Amino acid sequence: MGVKQVVKGNFATAVAAKLARVDVVPAYPITPSTLFPEQISTYIANGEMDAELLLTESEHSAMSAAIGASASGARVATATASQGLKLMSEMLFIASGMRLPIVTAVGNRALSAPINIWCDHQDTIAERDSGWLQFYAENNQNALDLMLMAFKISEDRRVLLPSMVGLDAFVLTHTMEGVDVPLQEEVDEFLPPYKPVYTLDVKNPMTFGSFGTPAHYMEFKYQQWEAMENAQKVIDEVFSEFYEKFGRKYEKVSEYRTDDADIIILTMGSMSGTARAAVDSMREKGIKVGAAKLTVFRPFPFREIKDLSRKAKVLAVADRNISFGFGGAVFAEIAGALINEKEKPMLIDFIIGLGGRDITQEDFYKIAEISKDAIDKGKVEKMVHWINLREVQ
Amino acid sequence: MYEVRFHGRGGQGAVTAANILSVAAFKEGKYVQAFPIFGVERRGAPVAAFLRMDDKPIDIKYQIYEPDAVVIQDPSLIQLKEANVAGGLKAGGKVIINTRKEPSEFDFGDAKVYTVDATGIAIENKLGTHTNPIVNTAILGAYARAVGNVSIDSVTEAIMEMSPAKKEANVVAAKAAYEKVVGV
């Protein structure tokens, strides 16, 4: 049993890094993730953490330093958000291509322009092809737990890929909630020290990320693809080991009141609890609606989404991101995952909560209403809806 | 579930007040959630912070639109339309105001009004400056008495844990406000 504490989401990710006995933290502060390097700095100053905090001149440099440190065999964590993740973008692909199990907490924040410091998932979603695993927290406990599990999953020899753990800007990063902080000895049992397969070593010189000609580049990429496929199984294993050790259950896709549902609302991140509360209210009125939450976005949980899709007439996807010229990214992935299924539900996309627009239960009532209309008419008349949008001139 | 909304001005510690009260309620076994509305903060600008407490886990994650209680750290916000301090206040809700005035001088419909001179108490205890007193710990003492769902002992314990400076003076201020709040 850990220690129960009221903490902010940023603190939860920092304490996870400390408990994971991270060796190196290269960081460049950015709202809303700044508390992460601050807290790491406090831990080191207090002698509670034996790690190197590298304060770099930019996020690009922070990720570059993370790559160097990880290649030399260190366990590495950092945190960023929004524009910071964008500046890291070039290096993200290098980290995954070099198969370095770095873990990054991302305080999910909207992208400029216009400048906005509040929550949406655009920053991480835009990195979905970077070769990083992606996890999304619903609450601060999730943020802590997923960080711990991310190290274990990333460092597994079948995977060896970096992970990002998304926690919603302000809604989690700056919100105080009760969190069970595991004891150090419990975490040590769960997460043994990182033993890299290959490291930079002057006694045994080796090159990482060298030139890949047309003769070999494609095989490198195939191995990354395979590693991501392997991650599906490793995630299940680590989730189940975590449950046995700490008693908290994680699933790639968690379902709520879906068994006899006509409509299932699929969410990601901090809106998920609000969706469940809305489902309860609607059920009281006899509306057959359920909710499902996506915790793992990369690798995409095809099997779980296929299972889910068989349960409803409409799968309503709440996307806190927008891929201009298509729709929401989660919707796009689900449509792709279901394309070869004989029986599939109607799919409707709902763009919601961009740039920190508050997501309330009323938003989910509206989503259910539009979904119900599609059931009544037997067809989807409009594929992408924007929820709680002001009138645009 | 019990929902509280704090209204203050940047620099008065409204966000910290919500955080401290969340820790106090947590100490009494409650599930809690405390969070700010973050704007581009400037000293003196209207700010709001939220606190939920419940006997069961709190799943919802949006701002508080229908509070059970409202804490107003700066009475000048009452006239300010954009601050909308009474917005959505539940019938029979409670309003705690930092002011020298009497509760009867305010009209919040059927809500019960409590007043406390948190500014005077803060200055007396040298919390902040004369022009910019930090009133949040005093107002929490008043909250403990007026609302009564978190004890003054838990509030002072939380203050001792969370105040970055002048812990004892903050506790004295909270206790003084607990005694002096008008309307109980």
Explain briefly what this protein structure is.
With 393 residues, chain A is of the alpha/beta class. Chain A is built from 12 helices and 15 strands.
Question: What would your notes on this structure say?
Answer:
The complex is a heterodimer of chains A (393) and B (184). Chain A has 393 residues and is of the alpha/beta class. Chain A has two domains: 3-246, Thiamin diphosphate (ThDP)-binding fold, Pyr/PP domains (Rossmann fold, 3-Layer(aba) Sandwich); 253-386, Rossmann fold, CATH 3.40.50.920. Helix content of chain A is 40%, strand content 18%. In chain A, the strands form four sheets. Chain A has a six-stranded mixed sheet with strand order 9-11-10-13-14-15, with helices on both faces. In chain A, strands 4-5-7-6-12 form a five-stranded mixed sheet, with helices on both faces. In chain A, strand 14 (346-351), helix 12 and strand 15 (384-386) form a beta-alpha-beta unit. Chain A is globular. With 184 residues, chain B is of the alpha/beta class. Chain B has a single domain (2-180), classed as Pyruvate-ferredoxin Oxidoreductase, domain 3, CATH 3.40.920. In chain B, 32% of the residues lie in helices and 20% in strands. Chain B has five helices and six strands; from the N terminus they run E-H-E-E-E-E-E-H-H-H-H. Chain B has a six-stranded mixed sheet, covered by helices on one side. In chain B, helix 4 runs antiparallel to helix 5. Chain A binds chain B through residues 4, 6, 32, 117-118, 139, 168, 170-171, 174-178, 270-271, 273-274, 276-277, 358-361, and chain B through 18-19, 22-23, 26, 31-36, 38, 40, 58-63, 65. Strand 8 (176-181) of chain A pairs antiparallel with strand 2 of chain B.
Distance from N terminus to C terminus of chain B (CA atoms, Å) equals: 23 Å
The CATH superfamily label of chain B reads Pyruvate-ferredoxin oxidoreductase, PFOR, domain III
Rough outline of chain A: globular
Largest sheet of chain A: 6 strands, mixed
Query: Share of helix among residues of chain A?
Result: 25-40%
Number of domains of chain A: 2
Q: Number of DSSP strands of chain A?
A: 15
